[in-house]
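Troubleshooting: if your tokenizer reports a length mismatch, compare against these two reference records.
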Amino acid sequence: MKLYENITIGNFLFSLGYSIRDKQRDSGLGAAGSVNLLQQTPADQLLGDVLVKFSGVVRLLEFKAEGADLRKERGKHAGLKQIINDLGLAEISREVHWYVETKATADTLGLLTVPYLDAFPRDHHPRSGRLEALVQSTAEAIATQQTRFSGAQINQYLLAIKTVSGKAASGTGGLLLLAEPGGVLKFAPLEDMLELNMNHRDWVMERIARAERSHELLLRQEQEKELAKQMTYDRGLSR
């Protein structure tokens, strides 16, 4: 039976939201975070299929169906493994970054679920996992805020992944959902989807710094134009 990756991803995201709500039902708390489906966007090649971030807990997941062409994935894995080992980020990688491969049968959906670093070589990895177990473990980590690493450390890891492709930005914009009292919903566009992994203070500081850089660039361009005009005028007088 053929089961496309987007079917598995859609079911994973839907059941993850349900599970998070169920685990936080009695606590009276709400999980503030972001869920980003990156499949078939520029960020898919730089990062992965799904990036989930809730209250400091981050999961980056790459989904593959059995039988898919894995040559590009093997190349990405080899480059990323080298960078991670060089930077000493293996422990962060094994918490944050996961590889999920599916095999559908008439009776069940078998999963190979391993840290991305351990995905290749894959000769001895059995597909004995279950999608519901992956959902439950992810939701449990989010509900209890189980993470050993700071946001800055995780951002360093995400940046390391991007350097494998030599890109400084994700290449994909994002939307920030703002839920106001009374059920009013608003969306705020972001230039780079990875800004969703920043806390509010860092995001504001980044916006201020970006505005200052843009202002400085504009001033420099205006100065260069004025200088060019002056040089043209001086040459005209010297003739």
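Reference record two:
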Amino acid sequence: MLVLSLKNIKNKMTKEEIIDKLTTIVKPYIHNEEGFKNMNENTDFIKDLDINSANLVDIILDVEDEFDIHIDNESMEKMLTVKETVLIIQTKMNA
């Protein structure tokens, strides 16, 4: 019963709460500190933060763990910006 309650709490996370968690997940992988300081919904992980594709996979694995979701390959390919990543997280959490 407790697990169900925690899952319901996670499902009700705001976009801002998701972005806060995502920021924490992304921080160890960035190579552009200035881009990270200005991170917003339109931030592109590769172009703006200089995150390489191998690290992007690490981020996706961390997202799966943090939000207790499974991200399929099709969704994974779309997770290039903060906005798209948040939408995918929200969709998976509400599934």
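Descriptive notes for reference record two:
- The chain has six helices and no strands.
- The two ends are 19 Å apart (CA to CA).
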